[in-house]
Amino acid sequence: MHIDAAQIASHSLIWTNTKSDAVAKPPKENSPITEHLAYLLAQANREINRQLELRLSKEGVPVEQWRILKVLSDGNGHSMGELADAVLLNHPTLTKMIDRMVSDTLVYRVQDPKDRRKVLMFISDRGKALCRRLNSLAVSQEEHIVESYGDKSTNELKRLLESLIGSAN
Amino acid sequence: MHIDAAQIASHSLIWTNTKSDAVAKPPKENSPITEHLAYLLAQANREINRQLELRLSKEGVPVEQWRILKVLSDGNGHSMGELADAVLLNHPTLTKMIDRMVSDTLVYRVQDPKDRRKVLMFISDRGKALCRRLNSLAVSQEEHIVESYGDKSTNELKRLLESLIGSAN
DNA sequence: CGCCAATCCTTGAATATTCAATATTCTCAA
DNA sequence: TTGAGAATATTGAATATTCAAGGATTGGCG
Hints:
- Two copies of one chain form a homodimer.
- By secondary structure, chain A is mostly helical.
- Chain A has helices spanning 37-56, 63-72, 80-87, 91-103, 125-149, 151-167, and strands at residues 78-79, 107-111, 119-123.
C-alpha cells in the first residue's frame, strides 16, 4: 500500500518481477524478501506453529512441552543436553521449562549414575497420559494440513526439509 | 525403574536419517517427532536462521531488522501493522524494535496524513546503506546453501513453501 | 596420583517478548 | 451531527529468553 508517491524519488533502478519465469532464481540483492529461503521458512514455520499452538492450547500446553513429552515418551532417560538439541531449545530455557514440568509432575529428574554431571529426564504416568492427548491433537493438525495442501506436496516437502537439515550440518 | 545409561549414549536421537525410505508417511500418534511437518519446519528454520544470524552479526544487526530494512527499502511508507505482518513480528515487539532503529537513525516515523491513526515508516539513507551491506551478506548465505543443497532442491523447496503458505490462509 | 581443562547443568542479571489496557482517530449509522 | 464501536499504535506489567558466570564432575596427561 503506497501512501505518498513523493517519497519514492531517489531510487534509480526499478525491477519488474517477471512472473513468466518457470523457476525461482537465487535472490539478487534487490529481490523482495519473500524470495529468500530463510524468510519462506520463517513464514511457514510461524504459520504452522501458530496452528499447532492453537490446537495444543486446548490442553494448556506450549508446543515445546509437547516436544519434550514426545521425546521422553520412549521411556528412556535423556540428558538435558540431548533433550535441548532434540526439542530445539537452548539449555537455560530448557532447564526452566523442565522446572515447571517437574512441579506439574509431568516429568522427573534422576541423576545419571554413570556420569554424575548429567541429569536424566523421565516422563511420568501423568506425562504419558497428557502426551497421548497431545499427540492426538497434533496428528489431527497434520491431517488438516494434508487435506488442504495435499498428500504429495506434504511428503515431498518433508523429504526436502530433512534433506536440507542433513546438508546443513 | 533403573537407568541404563549405555542405551542412551549409543543411539542418535535427533537425526535418524533414513535415506532409503521412499516416502514419508503421515505421522501416527506414536511416530517420532521428527516425522511431523511442524517439527521439521521448526528445525530447518532454526538452523537456517542461525546461519543467517551469524552472517548478519558482522554488522551487529538482528535478522528482524534486516527484514524491516528490506521491506522499507522500496522507498514507500509502510504502516506499523503492515510492517508487522511482513516481517513476522507482533505489534508491540515491532514498536519496540522500531524505537531502537529510530534512535539509530536507520528509519523514521511519519504520521499518515490520510489516516492519522497510522504511522508510516520510512527508511533513511543510513538505513539504505546498511541494508545494501546486509543484502550482500544474506545473498552470500543463500548461495552457500545452494552450494551444498543444490539448485534444484532449493528452488523446489521454495516453491513448496510458498504453496504451503498459500494453502494455509 | 594430582592437576587442569573440558563437559554438563543450573543460576542470576540483563534483555526481549507478550498480554492486557490505553489513547487516538476513523467509520458509519441513527 | 453525533455517538458507539472498530481500527491503529503504543505503553507498562508480567512473563520468557538469553548471556555470562558459576559449581560440580569427569577425563586425560604429566
